[in-house]
Amino acid sequence: MQQQLTNLSDKELISRARKQHDREAEGVLMDRYSHLLVAVTLPHLSQQSNLDPNVVFPSLLQRLSASLKTQTIYKVNEWILHIQKGYLSKPEKNTPFYPSRDGRDLLHIENTVDKAATNIIDRQDLIVRLEQALQRLNADDRALITQFYLENKPFADLSATTGISREKLRTQLKAAKGKLAKLFMNGYVK
Amino acid sequence: MLSSKPNNDKVLKIFSTIRCLSRDQLPRYLEGRLTDVEKHLVEQHLTDCDLCFDALQALEKEESTERYQDLTNKLQRYVHSSIQPVSHTQKIAQYTRKERNKEHMLAYFWIVAFIGLGIGSVYVMRGHIRNQPPPMHVMASVPARDSAAATAATGNPPVVTPVNHTTAPAPAPEASHTAPATPPAKPILAAAAKPVDSAALKKAAALKAAQHKAAADSIRKAQQANLLKQKQDSIRKAAADKANKDDKAKDDDTKTPAKPDNKPAQVAKEQKAPEPAKKESAAASPINSDEYLYKAAMVYQQQGNLGEAIDRYRRLESVSSGKYVELARYQLAICYRSKGQMGKARRMFREVIRMDGSMKDAAKQALDSM
What we know:
The complex is a heterodimer. Chain A has helices at 2-6, 10-19, 23-47, 53-68, 76-89, 101-116, 120-136, 139-150, 155-162, 166-187. Chain A is an all-alpha fold. The radius of gyration of chain A is 20 Å and the shape is globular. In chain B, helix 9 (211-255) packs antiparallel against helix 11 (274-303) and helix 11 runs antiparallel to helix 12. Classes of the chains: A mainly alpha, B mainly alpha. Chains A and B meet through helix 3, helix 4, helix 5, helix 6 and helix 7 of A and helix 1, helix 3, helix 4 and helix 5 of B.
């Protein structure tokens, strides 16, 4: 059972945990993200000595499990980070998680790309539209995206050539991607 | 459409989803122990995923990954331990629920089976009882009850009397002594009335006490009533004969006055002497044979030999007279009814009713219920 569940995607695990009250699916999902949760929480644990990992993690898991049943979750990683940040900043308050508008746009495009993977006609159409959207992006962003995605250049190379730190490079890339998504969704009419 | 083919495909990479970094990918990326392709994929994911990037940054700040590994192990163990008992107890609960359901179904099955068996056995028993030949006392009790009811209703007890043979000869000499006395019945009735009343009451009590004997009693009573009637008839006849004889004797006297007393006296005595004997035999033999026939027919009827019983009853009906004809007809009707010949049975019952005897009510009842 455990073996079968580990092969399922996040989405399926969530739906199992919700519809069938499957504690095992929930456990598998938590297990999948437990190391990231630990890594993200480590600096807080080292900074604040009053935090006990034996208390923090179980209560975090409880909160995640409670919100899993009620909230709309598009991306598990975003949701976990939101809950974790909310718990560590305001332990007494339960801050609900709302996916952003940009996030939903991105998600939509990602889903269409996923679907087009098996359909050649859709795929060709999608490629044409993406290229056109890319052409309309400003030169800096287009250059960055082209170098990173199309030429497979790692962060280290990019930061070395441009002289920007990795974090900044990442935020720039993210912003460029968001712009591209917006152009793809709204700027181009078929 | 100017761009080359491989570039074309790579455009899709911008928006393709990549899974979060796995548990060992994270330290390996930090240490730079990843292939170019894998590294590129991780970086591609890192641009999108805040969680993974934050985790990476946090791990970079830590001097060693020991704590990370340790805490991750603990957390995963905690998750496993919190899942397993739950799922295990869930499985046990499901199993026990299934077993309980099975038991319930079994219990219901047995209850239904027993109810069905009970109903079936009751049905079979009823069928068996219906097909059995009706027992003797059921048939016999009908006339008994009927005769008792008749006696109670009409209120003429004198007929039903335990008239002994002592009472019968008593009036006979009287009659012989008072030759021309035509009404000898009156004194008999008057004499019989008193003991009869009390006797009838006794009889009624006995009837109530012992219903099984009632049939035989009623038959005996009927016989006795017949006997009494016949005796009375014979006495009357005798009286009439004597009167005739006396007249004759007077004529003879007038003709031959030489022997005035001897002959008539002798004749009277001669006639008187054989008469009671004759009377007895004449009265007793048909009744006895009727009773015998009736009882034999009853035995056949009881044994279920209805044809033979019907024959006997027919013979009895044609041979005998009075009470036994009615009884025989009634039993004939019952025989026909149990044989299934309803038309004949109805006719017989109607005849019994027409005879207007003690069996009338029973016959009416039987006819109504047919």
